[in-house]
């Protein structure tokens, strides 16, 4: 018997939800701490990004300011880096760490890093199927509950396929983000953007951010397991 999306299987999500809350707390804590610590070189996030980009043959990539908090990102479609005001103008350990991370993505793009290319290739399609997956799952359950098992299962199965694509996207995103952070630390050290005593702080900021991507993947997998358990009922 189908119980709907709000049934006992929801317990599967609890560990993922707790881990997500922990990851978010770690990010907030690390950012708040190291956004108050001025880096010894007095370099802004914009300057750090510019140095890294130029050193890696990416002088054509502009660094722009964008609204929001922690809205920093590299846009591969337009080949531009956008940093939030606090990061763009900030002379803190957090600011240069985040700017270096986004520069890591630009380097990945410039070197045709395979995981980034794959993620960028599937991103438009995943955006569509992600929005459609839950409506298909819910509608499928409703139709099954009305007695039309064949049509309901067809829609539900399509929803599963769509949601699996979301899990694949999160799976591919994880190595992309971890690799960008590793590149960031290397660039910060090799270009002398931060003092050796500040490397530990930079790593804490970047590892906390990476944890949020692990949490996103864990939540997606937990949801998929839950969906499959619901599908297995008759």
Task: Give the structural class.
Answer: mainly alpha
Number of strands: 3
* Strand order of the biggest β-sheet: 1-3-2
State mean pLDDT (0 to 100 scale). 94
Overall, the morphology is elongated
Unreliable stretches:
1-5
Radius of gyration: 21 Å
User: What is the string of SSEs from the N terminus onward?
Assistant: HHEEEHHHHH
How can the largest sheet be summarized?
3 strands, mixed
Q: How far apart are the termini?
A: 5 Å
Task: Walk me through this protein's architecture.
The chain is mainly alpha-helical. It contains seven helices and three strands. The chain has helices at residues 14-34, 45-55, 85-89, 93-110, 114-145, 149-190, 199-231; strands spanning 63-66, 73-75, 80-84. Strands 1-3-2 form a three-stranded mixed sheet. The longest helix has 42 residues, at 149-190. The chain starts with 13 loop residues before the first helix and ends with a helix. The model is unreliable at 1-5 (pLDDT under 50).
């Amino acid at each position: 018997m189908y119980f709907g999306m709000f049934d006992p299987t929801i317990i599967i999500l609890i560990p993922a939800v707790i881990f997500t809350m922990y990851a978010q707390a770690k990010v907030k804590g690390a950012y708040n701490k190291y956004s108050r610590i001025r880096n010894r070189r007095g370099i802004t996030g914009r300057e750090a990004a510019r140095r890294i980009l130029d050193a890696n043959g990416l002088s054509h990539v502009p660094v722009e300011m964008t609204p929001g908090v922690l809205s920093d990102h590299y846009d591969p479609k337009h080949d531009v880096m956008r940093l939030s005001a606090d990061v763009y103008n900030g002379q803190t350990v957090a600011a240069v760490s985040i700017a270096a991370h986004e520069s890591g993505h630009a380097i990945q793009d410039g070197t045709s890093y395979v995981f980034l290319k794959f993620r960028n290739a599937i991103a438009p399609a995943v955006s569509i199927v992600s929005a459609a997956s839950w409506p298909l799952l819910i509608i499928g359950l409703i139709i099954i509950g009305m007695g039309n098992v064949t049509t309901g299962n067809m829609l539900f199965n399509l929803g599963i396929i769509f949601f699996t694509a979301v899990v694949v996207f999160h799976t591919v995103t994880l190595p992309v983000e971890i690799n960008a952070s590793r590149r960031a630390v290397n660039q910060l050290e090799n270009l002398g953007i931060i003092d050796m005593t500040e490397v530990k702080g930079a790593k804490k900021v970047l590892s906390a951010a990476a944890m949020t991507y692990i949490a996103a993947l864990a939540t997606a997998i937990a949801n998929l397991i839950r969906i499959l358990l619901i599908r297995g009922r008759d």
